[in-house]
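Consider a typical record:
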Amino acid sequence: MAGLRTVGAIALTLAVLGPFGAGPNDMVNGAMSAMVATFSIKEKHRGEQAVTLALGLLVALVAMSLGALLSAYTIASDVCFIALIFAAVYCRRYGDRATALGLIGFQIYFLSLFGGAAASSLPELWATLAIAFTCSAAVRFVLVAESTERILKRLRKAFRARVAQLVSVQIALLDAGPDDVEKALDDVRLHTARLHESALMIQDRLDEKASAGASVSLLQRRVAEAEIAAERLGILILTARSVEQADTLALHLPHAPLPEPGDRLQERGDTVATLHRDLEGLGVLVAGPASGADGSGVAQLRNRLLGYRDEENLPEAPAVVQDVFRGIGEAARAALGLRLALDGPQDESDDSPETKRSREELDAEDISIAAEGEQDEPHPRGLDRPTTRAAVQVSVGSTLAIVGGELIAPQRWYWAVLTCWVVFLNTSSTGEILVKGYRRLLGTVLGVIAGVVLAGAVGSHTWTAFALVLLFVFAMYFTAPVSYVLMSFFVTAMLGMLYTVLNTYSSAVLVLRIEETALGAVCGMVAALVVLPVQTDRRTDELLAATLVRLGDVSGAAVEQLSGGIALGLLDRARELDTALDKLRASTKPLTHPITPWRARRQTARYIVALLETCAYHARSLAATAELLPYSRSVAADPRLKLAGHRIGHNIDVLVARVAADAEDGVAETGSSLAAMLEPEAPDSPRHDRVTGRVLRHLQRLDEGVIGLARPLGVRISTPGKKAARGAAAR
């Protein structure tokens, strides 16, 4: 949609300028101004977008005027450019509007340099800017109109489709032979990750207050429940076809050891056929119609699958196979909750007793949901603030790029500055900047080659060149989330077409583009390494510590509620854990990049992230189970769980101290299994039931994952006896 809006704004601008006899320079200025006016604005609500667009036009007029008036004064022009760069980066701390205005000011000043703006041509340039911004507004609000509600509607549809796709590949995992298990599991990992991305996208939109607080909290909970239930189903299927309990790490770490194949599904043709039927039915229930011609059939299907939540409806099979049916029942309940949250009340005339019970649980949860205020967290100050540090770094790098660019080519030095600016966007460590600079250079080289070929083919056909520009602009937006190399390729190819339109194209110009890009990347890297550097290790350590803290918050709050304590805002804590883990995953990309020379560190980084993803899955599952506690008749609080939660919390605290403060005196505790710790001491004491057993499995896996993190992080591990473990947990 961003690509369509930008292409539409450019096309409309060209269509307006063409009949007025605008020259190539005016058309290029108009096209690029329309592009800047469209992609700079990231606010979610139409009213805020309109205000920012109006203010952006004023900023653009000032920036273009400064560029034209200072064009004859080299030093003054360069100083003004550096000041704009600093301001554009620094003002990001003030939110989306300030970020957009800073970006517009920088880009329009750059456009004045690119197009050779002069004071005498200012009236025409002002008119071109006004037309470009007006066309951008027309496309944004009329031709390709968007609203947060429409975006959320598409995201919800996409999320349901992702759940259905995950169920489909889980069926393939159930059927896979010994030689095909690895490939089937890779597909499950891929679709699990895509489902998680969809959930985060919905969360991002909901954070923008798209609707009332209660509705936001409700939808967040239903999306989280559906994601957890679908992910859990994959683990249950893998366990059912194995000799022992499958390690959750297998879902998150490529090439992780697979459990030994078992025969618990062999010679059980009827059971496997039933599993097939019900998994396919679950996919229909998630993505199929809620009412209409097929509504009755869907209701009957829903009733059957929800019946697996009742022990009496489970087929005769080994316990681990019955767990798969239970997982299908829980996934069906999550699908029902998601359907109610997205589509509103449904026809209840065909409900079975099990379905009515699920609806009652969901209704009780809905009533209890209340929006909670966000807690303010301390923010860094001065040069410790990321925006301030980045502003200083990019200003120094841009100064170096101006000096070097003037030496290479006084007429094209601004390409070096643009590259230096770009490599600092959305980066937070030296490693990320190095990787981005390398990708920018690679994409530019490939784009130059394509530009040479296309420029020769297009020749003097101006409108053909503009048509290719539109194609490349769309491709630039479409490929940006997938590959920075591809995006840089299409940007450079587009510039080749613009040079063709301006009759300034030559192979030497595009080769110079490579030189300036390399210079800008090098200047950005030097600035990142020398000026207020944030080492990749330091950045990842900070994010790792933050993720561990969030993990401790979620698991501790879930255990507290499952032990009979008060509700502690599990939904918000789980969301914060997902966000922290997503940031950590992004920060480790320089360490896991194929060109990194430190192979051992790459494997360690992948292992740690995979372990954290596994721990986060079990923590979210605990939170989801705890959320059921006040409303479900099958989940009951168990005070003994505090013993298990204490050991996990202690070990997480030790890991945080090791990562955040480099404390070497902490010792992680292990020893008896958590289930053994909770065994009753007296023969007549109550034993944990099946639901508590499920909670214990999540706690056990979480405990194992935390201990697994201790080893690569250099934390000592203590193994006390059972009695000592009980005493430590009680303390």
Observations:
- The chain is about 70% helix and 0% strand.
- Confidence is low (pLDDT under 50) at residues 209-214, 370-378, 681-688, 721-731.
- Residues 599-628 form the longest helix (30 residues).
- The longest strand covers residues 667-669.
